[in-house]
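Q: What structure does this chain adopt?
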Amino acid sequence: MKAKLQSLKTDLYNVFVVGNADDRQLAKAYLLLAIPLFAIFFGLGSFPKF
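A:
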């Protein structure tokens, strides 16, 4: 479990701080951000209207 958290931390650092992430790191980071956002949108009942 500790190794998974360390790899996730490294992936997020490479994506948002350093900027030299590969495709797999990008996918993990964006899914990690997208899942809670979709849960909030579905929980509130509507998507924001632009």
